[in-house]
Write a structure and sequence with these properties.
17 helices, Growth Hormone, Chain: A, single chain, 2 domains, mainly alpha
C-alpha cells in the first residue's frame, strides 16, 4: 500500500468541527453513568427508574440514526449536522434545568434525537472530504471521541458530581455545542440536497420501532436481573420481528432507508459485525464499572470515574498506530492482534470480586484500551472504504 499522504488544512478543520460535535454526543452516552446514584437520591426514585435517563437517550439514538442517510441526501449533510447540534444543545440545556426524574428522561430523549445524527452525519462529511485513500488517518481523527468519549465520560462526570451540581453534566455541553455550531457554519463544506430521494416511510416504521423495542427489552433484562417477565420477551420478539421485516423489505425496495444489500460484500459485513461486537464490549463496560465501584466498593463518583482512565490511556497510545497500519498494509495487519489484546484484558473482568486489587483492575483496563485503539478505527475505516456516502 502507498504511504499515507499528509492531511490538508481543510480536512483538519473539518475534522476539528466533527470531533467537537461527536465528543458531546458520545460523552453523554456514558458521562451520566457515575451520576445515576446521585440522581436516584436527589429525585427520590430507585436506580431501576433513574436508569431510564440513560435508556431514554439510547432509545432516541436508535430511532433517529436510520433517518440520517436519507436526511443527508434530502437536505444536505451540513444542514443536517447543524440541525442535529441545535437539538442536542437544546436538550442539554433543558436536561440541566430538569425538576423531576420524568422531566429529565423526556429532555434526554430530545437530546438523543439530536445526538443520534451527529456522529453518522459527521463521519459521512469526513469520508467525502478526505476520500477512501486516507480513510484510516481520518478515522483516527474522528475516532478520538468515539473511543475516548465513553472512557473519559465517567472521569469527567465523576469530577463534576464530586465538586458541583449534577446539572453541570448537561450544562457543560452548551458552550461546546455553540462553538461547534459556529465552526460548522464557517468550515463545513456546503452540500446541496436532492429532492429526488424519497423517504422510505414503511422502512422507518419497521426499523425504528424495532430497534426501540430491542433496546427496551434489553434494558428490562438489566432491571429484572435476567430474561424474566412478559415485558422482556414481548419487547424482544416484537423488535426482532419488525427488524426482520425491515431486512426483508430493504433487500427488495428500490430506495430503502438502509441498504442491506451492502452486507453482501464480505469485507463490509465482517467489519460491521466487528464494530458492533467491539462497541458492545466498550459501552457495556463503561456502564457497569462505575456502578461496581460506587455500589459494590463504596467509592466516590470521582474515584469511580478516575478508575476508567487507564482504558483511555491505552486507546490513545494505540489508536493512531492502528490507523496508520491500516492505511499502509490493510486492516488485517492490525485488527486480529487488537482483538486478541482486547480479549485478554476483558477476560480478567470475568474473575472480578468485591475485593479485587485496584492496580490489577487498572492494568486490565489499560490492556483493553490498547486492544480497542488497534481494533475499532481500522475496522471502521474498512467499512467506510467500501462505500463513501
Amino acid at each position: 500500500m502507498p504511504k499515507p499522504t499528509r492531511l490538508e488544512p481543510e480536512i483538519i478543520q473539518v475534522g476539528v468541527v466533527i470531533v467537537l460535535g461527536a465528543i458531546m454526543s458520545i460523552l453523554d452516552t456514558t458521562i451520566v453513568a457515575v451520576a445515576l446514584h446521585t440522581l436516584s437520591h436527589d429525585f427520590r426514585v430507585d436506580v431501576s427508574t433513574i436508569q431510564w435517563v440513560t435508556t431514554g437517550y439510547l432509545l432516541a439514538l436508535a430511532v433517529v440514526i436510520p433517518v440520517s442517510g436519507w436526511a443527508i441526501h434530502r437536505i444536505g449533510a451540513k444542514t443536517v449536522y447543524m440541525i442535529s447540534l441545535g437539538f442536542f444543545i437544546t436538550g442539554s440545556a433543558m436536561s440541566g434545568l430538569a425538576w423531576s426524574a420524568t422531566s429529565l428522561i423526556l429532555f434526554r430523549v430530545l437530546q438523543g434525537l439530536g445526538g443520534g445524527m451527529i456522529l453518522p452525519v459527521g463521519q459521512s462529511i469526513m469520508a467525502r472530504t478526505a476520500g477512501p485513500q486516507r480513510m484510516g488517518q481520518v478515522m483516527g481523527i474522528i475516532g478520538v471521541p468515539q473511543l475516548l468519549g465513553p472512557i473519559l465520560g465517567p472521569v469527567i462526570g465523576g469530577v463534576i458530581i464530586s465538586n458541583t451540581s449534577w446539572r453541570w453534566i448537561f450544562f457543560v455541553n452548551v458552550p461546546i455545542g455553540l462553538v461547534a455550531l459556529v465552526l460548522a457554519r464557517r468550515f463545513l463544506p456546503a452540500t446541496s440536497g436532492d429532492r429526488g430521494h424519497r423517504f422510505d416511510l414503511l422502512g422507518f416504521m419497521l426499523l425504528s420501532p424495532g430497534l426501540a423495542f430491542i433496546v427496551y427489552g434489553l434494558a428490562e433484562v438489566g432491571s429484572r436481573g435476567g430474561f424474566h417477565g412478559a415485558a422482556v420477551y414481548d419487547s424482544l420478539v416484537v423488535g426482532l420481528v419488525l427488524s426482520g421485516l425491515f431486512v426483508f423489505r430493504s433487500l427488495r425496495a428500490p430506495e430503502p432507508l438502509i441498504d442491506m444489500r451492502l452486507f453482501r460484500d464480505r469485507t463490509f459485513s465482517l467489519a460491521s459485525t466487528g464494530i458492533f461486537l467491539v462497541g458492545a464490549t466498550l459501552y457495556g463496560t463503561m456502564f457497569l464499572l462505575p456502578l461496581y465501584y460506587q455500589i459494590v466498593r463504596g467509592d466516590s463518583a470521582w474515584l469511580a470515574g478516575l478508575m476508567m482512565a487507564p482504558q483511555g490511556l491505552g486507546a490513545a497510545m494505540s489508536m493512531r498506530f492502528g490507523g496508520l497500519m491500516a492505511d499502509r498494509r490493510g486492516p488485517r495487519s492490525v485488527v486480529p492482534y487488537g482483538v486478541v489484546v482486547l480479549a485478554l484484558g476483558t477476560f480478567f473482568y470475568t474473575q472480578v470480586t468485591a475485593t479485587s486489587n485496584y492496580w490489577l483492575l487498572g492494568i486490565a483496563l489499560f490492556i483493553r484500551g490498547l486492544g480497542m485503539g488497534a481494533t475499532m478505527m481500522p475496522t471502521f475505516a474498512a467499512v467506510k472504504s467500501q462505500r463513501v456516502v
